[in-house]
Amino acid sequence: MKKMLIAVCSLLGMIVIYQNCSPKKKVRAITQDERTTIVAHSLYYFDSFASATNDVAAKRLNGFLIQNVVLGAPDSDGLMSWKKNDSSISMVPLFTQDSLFGGFWVELCNQKGMYAEFISKLNALVIRAGEPATASTKAITLMHESFHAFMFSQHRNKKSQTDKEYAEEELLAYLLQSDFTRKIGGQEYETFLSSEVEQTIKEFGAGIKNSQFPQRKKYDQKLDIFFGQAMSDQEKDFRATNLWITTCLYAISDLFPANQVTEKQEFFIYSLYREQGLR
Ligand SMILES: [Zn+2]
């Protein structure tokens, strides 16, 4: 009996030691309140910039989110969502420790960069909670991704998109994003952007006419003046990419006759996806 008691005690001791050493034990679980706060902040940033710029598309998309967004959280089975009805979209604040949920979440947690991302297979807008970015970058990326969420809500039963449909949707998202960014950046950014487009046409116009697009430039510190000091290299990367895509789209629109512009812009956007995985 004594031997058995010792065996049970040492087994219990081992379990305690194991639990203390287990990596899961060291990671604090994210509470529902913490995730709710991130959702509220994200919607607030988007709403503030949509109202301040009076951008019609941003206001509509913000209204669409306010009406349909519910809290979502990673779960080992996929997604836990506080869905209200069929049109609900889960907004999922993603923290580094969410990789503990395994599978798909590990992959998402390891991806760097974008602050927001719409994941159609989950009908969820993922917000990277730990990604340092200024409020304008958060609002701009949320606008782009909420456009994808809106488009998905219109074609929910469709299994997949053709390349052409993908390019059409992505072009619209980038045109809306460019417009919203211009309004946020104000007159000084507008002047800077015009000279970027002019210079691009001068240097690369002939190439663009043959579907050869210029490479993205390094981060221009002037962007800090228009949008506030960038908070991370990821944010600089986002801003430089945003400026480059807008510049190319506007250059295409100046270089081609009106009836060819959309087709050429779609080709450019599709090449971004095909060659660099940008979407
Ligand atoms: Zn997109």
Specify the helix fraction band. 55-70%
Number of strands: 5
Approximately how much beta-strand content do the residues carry?
5-15%
Shape: globular
Taking strands numbered 1, 2, ... along the chain, how are they ordered across the largest sheet?
Answer: 2-1-3-5-4
- Can you summarize the main beta sheet? 5 strands, mixed
The number of helical segments is: 10
Distance between the termini: 67 Å
Write the layout of secondary structure elements.
Elements: H1 2-21, H2 23-26, H3 32-53, H4 56-68, E1 69-75, E2 78-81, E3 89-94, H5 104-110, E4 116-119, E5 124-128, H6 135-154, H7 163-209, H8 222-227, H9 233-255, H10 258-276
Parallel strand pairs: 1-3, 3-5
Antiparallel strand pairs: 1-2, 4-5
Residues 144, 148, 170, 173, 279 line the site of zinc ion (ZN).
Describe this structure in words.
The protein has 279 residues and is an alpha/beta fold. The chain has 2 domains: 27-132, no CATH class; 163-276, no CATH class. Helix content is 65%, strand content 9%. It is built from 10 helices and 5 strands. The protein has helices at 2-21, 23-26, 32-53, 56-68, 104-110, 135-154, 163-209, 222-227, 233-255, 258-276; strands spanning 69-75, 78-81, 89-94, 116-119, 124-128. The chain has a 5-stranded mixed sheet, sandwiched between helices. β1 (69-75) and β2 (78-81) form a beta hairpin. α7 packs across α9 and α7 crosses α10 (258-276). The longest helix has 47 residues, at 163-209. The relative contact order is 0.10. The model is unreliable at 4-25 (pLDDT under 50). Bound molecules: zinc ion. Zinc ion binds at residues 144, 148, 170, 173, 279.
